[in-house]
Write a structure and sequence with these properties.
Pfam families: DUF2306. The chain is mostly helical. The protein is built from nine helices and no strands.
Length: about 200
């Protein structure tokens, strides 16, 4: 848990500060033409996403789940309704008008829909006391919560792979962004399914 929490803290420390001033000029995502409210949807996505990523780290912490189940339930409600669901909706809207090309935009919308669907399925399962199903859906929801972090982490690798083949700077950025987005979604889905399918370790 400690390394994961540290990675999330570094990611938030890098990603969030430019948007605390509410100055559109400091945005790292260029606003598409004809969508004046893009920046405010982006700020909402980042705000709700910050709640989601902090909340999900607490949710997957075994010690907290085991020793403080009431806290786990309360944080879970915050994660679902003040984090994942609104952030996923904002991500879908932003992705539909992504300035990084149609492929990245389509992937952003698909990832947002998966995040929304997984989270709702996990919430519905726990309401019906289907605990095993709840765990499975929430592992997948956790994976999609990490999508932005993962895509940023994979960007340098994508640039290194693409750079020898693409000379135009704008094309290089779009191609590397597309590759990192594809790798992020696929790796998270595969890793989460592997985690769910793996054989349990021998009990200590």
């Amino acid at each position: 848990m400690a390394p994961l929490a540290l990675i999330v803290a570094v990611f938030l420390a890098y990603s969030v500060p430019p948007y605390l001033t509410l100055d559109p000029a400091r945005s790292r995502v260029p606003a598409p033409a004809g969508f004046a409210a893009h920046y405010w949807f982006l700020v909402a996505h980042i705000t709700f996403g910050t709640i989601a990523i902090v909340g999900v780290i607490l949710q997957i912490w075994p010690w907290l789940r085991r020793t403080h189940p009431v806290v786990h339930r309360r944080v879970g409600r915050v994660y679902v309704f003040a984090g994942a669901l609104p952030s996923a909706v904002m991500a879908g809207i932003i992705g539909a008008v992504s300035p990084f090309g149609p492929v990245v935009g389509a992937l952003d919308v698909v990832a947002a829909l998966l995040w929304l669907g997984f989270t709702l399925a996990g919430w519905r399962a726990i309401r019906q006391r289907r605990y095993a199903d709840h765990r499975k859906w929430m592992v997948r929801s956790f994976a999609m919560t990490m999508n932005t972090l993962m895509s940023r982490a994979l960007s340098p690798i994508a640039f290194l792979l693409v750079m020898p083949r693409v000379e135009d700077k704008e094309e290089l950025i779009l191609t590397a962004g597309t590759l990192s987005a594809v790798l992020s979604v696929l790796s998270l889905l595969l890793l989460s399914q592997w985690w769910l399918d793996r054989k349990p370790a021998t009990a200590r």
